[in-house]
Write a structure and sequence with these properties.
single chain; about 350 residues; alpha+beta; 5-stranded mixed sheet; 11 helices; 16 strands; about 30% strand; globular; disordered N terminus
Length: about 350
């Protein structure tokens, strides 16, 4: 237990227990035609890395990740993440770090990244994009706005959303549902059909919604979140797998500070800032270097209309290819985010 943060704890024992309680997710199947670019937040699964098998539990994903990643001692790692206890971001921490290290929940993603910047954490794990809800703009902005931040890993986590309520609550009792905006988006069709009159309230995380539902008087509050969160906050799964797609998946970035890795890995990412008129030439030069564009996310530069910072993610390339792209596009400003493994 950290003396500085009473909420910090070693999660290794917790993770082994609760990864098994969570509903089994389904892998994301790539349906895009070969060579098609995926723009503005819709990621493409690289052909070199098959999608997770349908129905693969998060525990199996963690064990597979530990087996395939280089052996690293994470026992002293301090990891900040979107809390409170029981979020999907916490599960992503478990998958990437294999249950090692100390995980410190933060109130929001900005606080998670700030803990990293301030030296109070070695890594920050943040949600980046969901296959249903799309990219999370304000979370991408955290990467764009902090020049010292680099990407050292990614976790692709199958997401099984559930309606969580008190054990003796009935579905007809529910008048208020709490969740993160992504949980709300993923469960919106189910809510419309089964709880059309319920008030849906957005909160900073799915686990915070679960905590609020557990602390509310009576049985009329519920939350959308993980089965692990239900266990943490003494709730029951009133309805499971309420997400609108069985291939529901969220990508998480693992962030650090310092020099980004240049060795070739599963993915490489960089920022390119400038006019939208230069985007086509940028993507052409990426392809000319033999790289596969996996995703392009745009964020406004907040200077002039039509000027953006693009977050570009690629496969089949490394730092040398990135440098060539920079030379081919002198009208743009670049920042290298790193080469990193995907688990």
């Amino acid at each position: 237990m950290s003396a500085e943060n009473p909420m910090a704890r070693d999660w290794s024992e917790y993770g082994q227990k609760h990864m098994r309680t969570r509903g089994a997710g389904r892998g994301l199947v790539a349906l895009l035609l070969a060579g098609m670019l995926t723009l503005v937040g819709c990621a493409q699964t690289p052909s070199a890395r098959p999608a997770t098998d349908a129905g693969e539990p998060a525990q199996e994903q963690q064990e597979q990740a530990v087996a395939t990643m280089p052996q690293t001692d994470w026992s002293k790692a301090r990891v900040s993440y979107l809390g409170p206890e029981g979020t999907y971001t916490q599960e992503a921490c478990q998958v990437f770090f294999g249950g090692q290290g100390t995980y410190e929940p933060q109130e929001d993603v900005a606080a998670s990244v700030q803990a990293l910047i301030d030296g109070n954490a070695d890594y920050a794990v943040i949600p980046q994009e969901n296959s249903i809800g799309g990219p999370i703009a304000e979370y991408l902005d955290e990467v764009v706005s902090h020049e010292d931040v680099c990407i050292v890993g990614e976790v692709d986590l199958p997401i099984s959303q559930n309606l969580l309520a008190k054990p003796d609550a009935k579905l007809e009792d529910i008048k208020t549902v709490y969740s993160h905006k992504q949980g709300i988006a993923q469960g919106s069709a189910w809510l419309k059909e089964h709880l059309p009159n319920a008030t849906v309230t957005e909160v900073s995380s799915t686990a915070k919604g679960a905590r609020m539902a557990s602390e509310a008087p009576g049985n009329d509050c519920a939350a959308i979140g993980s089965a692990a969160a239900a266990d943490v906050y003494g709730l029951s799964v009133a309805a499971d797998n309420i997400q609108m797609s069985d291939t529901n998946k969220t990508r998480f970035y693992v962030l650090s500070t310092g020099s980004p890795a240049t060795e070739a890995s599963d993915r490489m990412a960089f920022l390119a800032s400038g006019s939208a008129a230069d985007l086509a030439e940028l993507l052409a030069s990426v392809e000319a270097q033999g790289m596969q564009v996996l995703a392009v996310h745009d964020r406004p530069q907040k200077t002039e209309l039509g000027n953006y910072t693009y977050v570009v993610e690629c496969a089949d390339g490394g730092y040398d290819a990135y440098q060539s792209v920079c030379k081919d596009n002198p009208s743009l400003e670049f920042r290298y985010l790193g080469s990193f493994p995907v688990v």
